[in-house]
Amino acid sequence: MIDFWLAAGLLLLVALSFLLIPVLRGRRAQLEEDRTALNVALYQERVAELQTQQEEGVLNAEQMDTGRAEAARELLADTEGVEAPRVSRLGKPLPLLAAVLVPVLGLGLYLHFGASDKVELTREFAQAPQSMEEMTRRLERAVAAQPDSAEGLYFLGRTYMAQDRPGDAAKIFERTVALAGRQPELLGQWAQAQYFADGKKWSDKVQALTDEALKADPKEVTSLGLLGIAAFEGERYQDAIDYWNRLLAQLPPDDKSRVALQGGITRAAEKLEASGGKVAQAPAVKAAVLKVHVDLAPELKAKVLPGDSVFIFARAISGPPAPLAAKRLTVADLPATVELGDADAMMPQLKLSNFPEVQLVARISRAGQPTAGEWIGRSQPLATSTTAQQKLTIDTPDK
Questions:
Q1: What are the helix (H) ranges across 114-181?
Q2: How many whole angstroms separate alpha carbon 354 and alpha carbon 341?
Q3: Which of 144, 275, 293, 306 could form a disulfide with 332 if both were Cys (CB 3.0 to 4.6 A apart)?
């Protein structure tokens, strides 16, 4: 904070200069005025001497006029260039009083309306915390300083869960939902915290939160995991297996939690078989494959080069903006028929089969950039279960 206060002090000095400079100028004007008065007094004394000499007969009338003119010229030379004295309506005490009050009022207003606490928090977050407790204290102070920050509340709630404080986390997630809206992920986090805060007892409130989350997003991972835990604790082992299998399908292959989740599925299956039941096999999800024939509009063939890149991809109508599946060709390969499927997924958790509708896009990019180019073609929304071949023509400037 030292550098901040130094900068504030320099700004105050600048402000004080605007108040004190007129006072200093007033003093200079007073000195000029005093010098002018002295010159006038000397002139008057010189004229009086000349008059005495004239009365004594030393000077005649012509010499008297010449001496008076000479004295007048000297007075004019001494007072030439002196500015007329400025009359201040405010007087001198007011600027001096303002010079004292400005820093005092400035400091008081900053301490009342300023953000010194946020400045200090910013400096603290620039350094890595030494412990989880220190991180929690920082987040609590950040939330206190910015109570309308949904992001700060969310991270504080996750931190409380990591510290086994589900009751505090549930309250924080409730505030987060009130600020950020009833997003599926937030509802899932709130339901999980509430479940553990209630001593792992399922309640109508938790059920309503998970139902709402999965209705908005059937693949919401926290709700699926929580429902699997509740089903396992309630000895509904088949339900637990089903929920956890759905969750397992959403996790990337390198996710560390897959091992623990698979272990839970195995234990649920063993308990189900030990009680005389039989594990029902989940229906296999059919991989999505879209066939698309890509061609170039005739009027564009003279405007493109054979080596220009052509990116063909599918993106979700309702979902992340990143392409779900993509392939790269060149203009020389057109017309061409390609297949886009789960095997072409850009990320393991973002597959065509995970989304009901997509849009097909083909873009020509001379610079080889998939996100920007010169020409583009787009399809209408298309169900991922479509088996018929689609036709896509590149015919529109890419803006």
A1: 116-125, 132-145, 150-162, 166-180
A2: 11
A3: 306
Confidence of residue 321 (pLDDT cuts 50, 70, 90): confident
pTM of full prediction above 0.70: no
Sheet holding 390-394, edge to edge: 336-341, 289-296, 390-394
Give the whole-angstrom CA distance, residue 346 versus residue 324: 6
Please write the tens of the pLDDT for every residue from 332-363. 999 999 999 887 877 766 788 878 889 999 99
Residue 125, pLDDT score: 47
Q: Which of 242, 200, 201 is nearest to 225 (CA)?
A: 242
Give per-residue pLDDT as tens, 266-286. 999 999 998 888 888 755 556
Q: Minimal CA–CA distance to 342: which of 290, 294, 284, 379?
A: 290
Query: Using an 8 Å Cβ cutoff, are 309 and 330 in contact?
Result: yes
Question: Residues 250, 379, 344, CA angle at the centre, nearest 5°?
Answer: 35
Alpha helix stretches (DSSP H) within 253-348:
257-274
Task: Mention every residue, 6+ apart, whose C-beta is less than 8 A from residue 126.
Answer: none
User: Quick one: pLDDT at residue 307?
Assistant: 92
- Asked whether the CA dihedral 207, 201, 221, 136 is positive or negative, the reply is positive
Query: pLDDT digit string (tens) for 83-138?
Result: 444 444 444 565 555 555 655 565 555 555 555 555 554 555 455 555 778 778 88
Q: Where are the domains of the chain?
A: 2-113, 148-274, 289-397
Residues 6+ away with beta carbon under 8 Å from 4: 116, 119
Would you state the pLDDT for residue 343? 79
Residue 194 burial by CB count (10 A; 0-12/13-18/19+): exposed, middle or buried? buried
Task: Write down the architecture of domain 148-274 according to CATH.
Answer: Alpha Horseshoe (1.25)
**Side-chain half-sphere exposure of 49, counting CA atoms within 13 A:** 9
Residue with tokens 């993106």: 315
In 3D, which of 188, 39, 12 has the Cα closest to residue 104? 12
CATH of domain 289-397: 2.60.40
Q: How far apart are alpha carbons 224 and 232 in whole angstroms?
A: 12
> Which segment of 158-162, 337-341, 365-369, 392-396 scores lowest on mean pLDDT?
365-369
| Beta carbons of 138 and 121 less than 8 angstroms apart | yes
298 Cβ neighbours under 8 A, 6+ residues apart = none
